[in-house]
Design brief:
alpha+beta; Metal Binding Protein, Guanine Nucleotide Exchange Factor, Chain A; three-stranded antiparallel β-sheet; 4 helices; binds zinc ion
Length: 180
């Protein structure tokens, strides 16, 4: 392993370790079936643009390539667009060529839920924000090593927060977990 690769791997681990070392914030309870954050239909419509609503609340899929984050290479944090939960880090993003933002792992598997999706005659694994239930995309078993997974996510389900360094991503993640 080259020096650069091992440095990158330790930086990658920093972000997910900063999350897994923390208890969940006080407003988040993942023990029941109920989402910790929920709004009425009218409130969801008010909080989200039409495209964000279609993707996150109606399991829609935006068009490939014609979305803001598929080739975003900036350092930063990807939050759930509906509830601000930190879901993905730029340190886990890779260029899949699919036209959608792709990650090889979420920041914290507690906050990214999975369900079996049999729509469109395919068997796929759907992923959503576990805090508010917003649909994010799908996960496929064809990602790069070492995880081998590819999280194929809609830009419309994400809000990107650009920062100067990986350390600042870690800080944003910690801030969310420690919020009261
Ligand atoms: Zn959410």
């Amino acid at each position: 392993m080259s020096k650069n690769t091992s440095q990158l791997n330790s930086k990658r681990k920093q972000v997910s370790q900063s999350a897994s070392a923390c208890g969940l914030p006080s407003h988040v309870d993942l023990s029941g079936d109920q989402s910790s954050v929920s709004y009425s239909e009218a409130e969801w419509r008010k909080r989200l643009t039409e495209e964000q609503y279609l993707v996150t609340r109606e399991q829609g899929t935006e068009r490939p390539f014609a979305n803001p984050f598929h080739d975003n290479k900036a350092i930063g944090l990807y939050r759930c667009v509906a509830c601000e939960t930190p879901l993905f880090s730029s340190t886990d993003k890779f260029d899949s060529g699919s036209g959608w933002p792709s990650f090889d792992s979420p920041i914290d598997s507690r906050t990214l839920g999975e369900t079996r999706d049999v729509s469109y005659g395919m068997v796929r694994v759907e992923v959503h924000c576990n805090v508010c239930g917003s649909h994010q995309g799908h996960v496929f078993p064809d990602g790069p090593a070492p995880t081998g997974t590819r999280y194929c996510i809609n830009s419309a389900a994400l809000r990107f927060e650009s920062v100067e360094s990986v350390e600042l991503i870690v800080q944003l993640v910690k801030d969310w977990y420690q919020a009261q």
